[in-house]
TrEMBL record:
Keywords: Membrane, Transmembrane, Transmembrane helix. This is Uncharacterized protein. The lineage of its organism: Eukaryota, Viridiplantae, Chlorophyta, core chlorophytes, Chlorophyceae. The chain crosses the membrane at residues 20-42, 62-83, 108-128, 134-152. It comes from Monoraphidium neglectum. It comes from the Eukaryota.
Amino acid sequence: MFVPVIFSDAAAKKVTNKAAWSTAIAFTTNIAFFPFLALRAAPEPPGAPKPAPGGTQAAPGWGAATGAICLALCGLSAAWAVAGRPEMAGGLAERAAYLQEEFGSNRVFWAFFLDCGLFWAWQAVLLAGAEAKYRFVPVAGLAAWLIAGNGAQGRQQAAKQ
């Protein structure tokens, strides 16, 4: 879901070849995402125009479809985690016990949750001009921002300037 945001982020205007970066991010997640964020945070070259202030970003037109598809996939994943294949994974009690066991013993499991937290923090940074309900609600807030007009107020402000 960060791909439409990457294309609309004013601070990332200096990063070239966003299509290649987006493809790499889609398949390697944080291996490519964090270097992209470092390039985005690099100082502007001397004489370059300053990025627009927060709140003026607007995702591409396909951002709403991306948000809707990703939100549907998240819902399907959550439903599957709770109720999918009960003959193999058991009921809710067995799933809760498995989750507790993984929290206590699996470092890869913890790394996944750490990644989720980092992406949530970057969501708040990359949606700096958005309302708090979009910035600070992980995953669903980003999807809702994309679906709900993806910065339509920002486009109106930018058009007036």
